[in-house]
Amino acid sequence: MNNRFIIFYRQFWLGICVIIIIQSATIIAQTPTTEWWKFMREIEREHYLCYQADESIEIDGKINELSWKQAPWTNYFVDLGPKNLEAHNKSAPVPHLKTRVKMLWDDYYFYIAAELEEPHVWGTLLFHDQIICLENNFEIFIDANGDNHNYIEIEINALNTVWDLVVDKPYRDKAKPDQAWNIKGLKKAVYVNGTLNNPKDIDGGWTMEMAIPWESIAEYTDSPCPPQNGNKWRINFARTEFENEIIQSKFTTKDVTNNAYQKKENGEVGIWSWSSHGVCNLHTPEMFGVVQFTNLAAGEAEWIPDQTVEARYILMDIYYAQRDYYKKNDKYVINLDELGLTKKKSENIILELTKNGYSASITVKVRSGLQKLTIREDSKIIID
Ligand SMILES: [Ca+2]
Ligand SMILES: [Ca+2]
Ligand SMILES: [Ca+2]
Ligand SMILES: [Ca+2]
User: Fold this and answer.
1) What is the pLDDT of residue 257?
2) Pairing state between β 47-52 and 99-105
3) Which residues are in the CB-under-5-Å shell of ion ligand 4?
């Protein structure tokens, strides 16, 4: 492809990106209600102890360094569909292909490795900041301070193409994502166990290795960055998997040879995730998993439970109840009875109306003393 065509192609993509974001949001935007939340809050979030890398990690897509060998795998991903409440309880369905992740860190980088089982490794999206989830991909979500806002999303495909963006708040709260934001110095590589875009064989899958520079994401973490020993970040990983079909190759380019796959029209779309969400919506940050960073050697750290978990759940009880109440009555309330939360009266919740909506606060005892958590109508949780 010549340069003029590449420039045109990039402008074309930037020009229609807003439309595509709306389209892609329809894949992921099953907005939960109080009824959903009752199931979601019962799901135990996945957690992971992230150890330090004690050697330099070569970002070549191969997860074979000694540090990687010592790092534990996450559990295999679960299926966030089918779209019914019963299927979303504690035993989320298991997808037909396996996906799992490892994490490491050092003073400069947050390392992520993923292994995706895939009999037909394919992809066509070649340009940075194309909407990667419109084809098979792997996705990373980082809400470092766990406030449900300003989280980083990174998507990558088997062609090693990345879409990186900052999401200011969940789509349910009217997000305005910034995809012009790029992670400076991001290192990433893919290794294909098989053949890419060649349907004549059955592939093992692909592995992905990534190094995210701490200094490039620091402005969106609102937490120490790099994290300190024992810090916990809210993180999730996901995978989108489209049912495909093999077609006669229409073209061959320098970059994509023997391209003979396409998404099946009206085919199945798998949305698979590390931490089960209880709803087919990856932009539900209160359901992200929890990663605890540790300075200790692999296998020596202990998971320390988060003492704010129950308070956070109570604040989300209020958030979902207020959303439902607002839909019916076009206003928020400060009376827990009217929100159907009479049982929460013993929790010393301070509920007030504000200029833009409401605030609900709850104070909890943590190891370092007392912590006050406040939620607003846009689901942001502020910790004082
Ligand atoms: Ca490597
Ligand atoms: Ca955040
Ligand atoms: Ca970007
Ligand atoms: Ca192949």
Assistant:
1) 52
2) parallel
3) 194-195, 198, 201, 203
Average pLDDT over residues 98-117: 98
Distance 148 CA to ligand 2 centre (A): 6
Q: Which residues does residue 228 pair with via DSSP β-bridges, in sequence order? A: none
Give the type of residue at 355: K
Smallest Cα–Cα separation from 160: which of 198, 117, 206?
Answer: 206
What is the identity of the amino acid at 316?
M
The pLDDT, as a whole number, for residue 259 is 58
Nearest to 53 by CA among 110, 4, 101: 110
Distance 194 CA to ligand 2 centre (A): 38
Domain ranges of the chain: 3-293, 309-383
CATH architecture entry for 3-293: Sandwich (2.60)
**Closest by Cα among 160, 52, 152, 45 to 106:** 52
pLDDT tens digits for range 155-190? 999 999 999 999 999 999 999 999 999 999 999 999
Å from CA of 63 to ligand 1 middle:
5
